[in-house]
Structure formats: structure tokens, C-alpha cells
Write a sequence for this structure.
């Protein structure tokens, strides 16, 4: 399982690093900013997971590959920024892929450390969304997990498949593949069709109970 978790971690690291670098290009950051966002998006979820389960120092700090992969991704996007800056859909697809890789690896590593099924699911979700939260906060955006269509729900579904497979004592590799496919598929379909959870209903009145005026009337009685 250790090799599987490493492979999933590095795949998720690369995917999220690309989203971080592309987000930095979108916000017109310099090379340093691109590398910072690449590292933040690629490593924060895994670092949070490792700290919570007591795997210290975190793999992202102890293994040089976790640093090299996002740096290479950031440099690549920097030199080819003219071809990536205008592409929003690839960023969303890569983000969905990174979410799937990390949700599955987070759940598997939590199970390997003897955590309960519920805790493993929670760690899978946190691993999946952590990097994206760090990336969005650094560019002063509302984190994708709080506003996107079925983001955390997709990670929850993928991590749940992994935990259920473990409880049924199934082989880790096919379970990880199915869990990743479920997470990615849900996120992809949500992007494509705009699926989302219910939102709070908003009336046309303010909290003070006074109706909102849709137009402003000037001194001559004309509305504008």
C-alpha cells in the first residue's frame, strides 16, 4: 500500500501544482509567485493529513520528490504561460484529477495508520481539498470547495469507496481506481452540467425588513 499511496500522492501533486501555476499566471504573478502557488496547491493537503495522523515530518518535507514535482510544473507553466493562461477548462479538469488522487491517497494512508473508517473518510476529504484552499486563499479568492459544484462531495464519495473496499478486504489497487474514478466522474459531471448542492433562498428584502429598491428616484420623480 505504501507504493500505491506514493504514486497517488505524486500524481495528485503534479495535477494540483499545474492548477496552482495556472492560477498564478491568471493573476499575473511573477516566477516566484508561480512557484509558491504551485507548492502550496500541491503540498498543503498532504502536509495537513500527515500532521493529523502523526506521520512526521510530513512526506512533502521529507521526500525531495514532493518538492521537485511542483517546482518543475511551475517552471513549465511559466515558460509556456502564453499557451495556458486562456484555458480555464484544463485547469478545472486538472483540479478534478488532483482532487481524486488526493482523496484516495488520503483515505488509504489514514487506514494504513489504523484510523477508524469515519476518520479515514474525513482525512481523505481534507487531503483532497487542502491544496485548493491554500491556492485560492493566496490569490484572495473564495476557496473552490465553498463555491464549486460538488467539490467536497466528490472527494467524500471517493474516500468512502476506498474505506468500504478496505472494510470488505478487497485489493487496494482496484479499490483505489474505482474510488478515484467515482470522485473524478462526479466532479467532471458537475462541471459539465452545473450540478450543485441546494443554496440558501434569498428574498428581495434586507435583513432590516425594508424592501430593496430596484431604482433610485431623482428630485423630478424620474427613476434611474
Amino acid at each position: 500500500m505504501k507504493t500505491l499511496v506514493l504514486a497517488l500522492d505524486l500524481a495528485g501533486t503534479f495535477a494540483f501544482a499545474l492548477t496552482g501555476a495556472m492560477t498564478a499566471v491568471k493573476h499575473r504573478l511573477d516566477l516566484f509567485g508561480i512557484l509558491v502557488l504551485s507548492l502550496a496547491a500541491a503540498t498543503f493537503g498532504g502536509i495537513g493529513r500527515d500532521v493529523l495522523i502523526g506521520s512526521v515530518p510530513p512526506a512533502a518535507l521529507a521526500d525531495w520528490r514532493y518538492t521537485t514535482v511542483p517546482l518543475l510544473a511551475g517552471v513549465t507553466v511559466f515558460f509556456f504561460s502564453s499557451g495556458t493562461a486562456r484555458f480555464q477548462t484544463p485547469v478545472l479538469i486538472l483540479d478534478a484529477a488532483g482532487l481524486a488522487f488526493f482523496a484516495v491517497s488520503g483515505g488509504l494512508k489514514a487506514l494504513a495508520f489504523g484510523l477508524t473508517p469515519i476518520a479515514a473518510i474525513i482525512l481523505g476529504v481534507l487531503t483532497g481539498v487542502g491544496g485548493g484552499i491554500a491556492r485560492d486563499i493566496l490569490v484572495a479568492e473564495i476557496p473552490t470547495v465553498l463555491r464549486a459544484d460538488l467539490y467536497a462531495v466528490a472527494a467524500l464519495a471517493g474516500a468512502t469507496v476506498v474505506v468500504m473496499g478496505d472494510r470488505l478486504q478487497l485489493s487496494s489497487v482496484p479499490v483505489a481506481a474505482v474510488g478515484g474514478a467515482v470522485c473524478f466522474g462526479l466532479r467532471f459531471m458537475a462541471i459539465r452540467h452545473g450540478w450543485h448542492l441546494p443554496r440558501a433562498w434569498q428574498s428581495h428584502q434586507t435583513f432590516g425588513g425594508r424592501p430593496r429598491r430596484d431604482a433610485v428616484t431623482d428630485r423630478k420623480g424620474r427613476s434611474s
